[in-house]
Amino acid sequence: MRNEEATNKSSGEQNPLLRLLILTSWMLTLLLQGCSTDGGTHSTAPGAAVGFAEFYAYKGRTLGYPIAIYEMKAGQPVLLGKCGNFRALDSRKRFNLPPGDHEFLLVHAQAQHPLRLRIEEGMITPVRMTITKLDSEPVTEWEWRVRYRFEINPEPAMPWK
Question: Structurally, how many domains does the chain consist of?
């Protein structure tokens, strides 16, 4: 009897729990593939002359809060994406933009930081965002007040490709 069970399992019949585990891991691999290595370019101007704005959190550290990147269009903020966190994997975002002057609003932990940036055709304009913790103090047993400095440093444009 034991030999028959061993033969059946080795010939392809699997435990239902093992099948569920394999199916779940396969689905997670498909669904999370883009989240872990989001190094793609996000287009806001398809089919036109483009330049690039590339935002990155220096060393990938943003004190646990992602930085939301908005482009101001007709006075209204339009979310382009978020970058930074404790993981360095999502600390860089590149956006296709039409050449010209653009206004952005960078939001980190409810603080808003405006940025004006010139985008040139066929060029990448990197923007380094550095967050430095200055100090922290307890407010209550469960709350802390943290002071930090948020620096935005546009770097010289460089050719794409």
Answer: 2
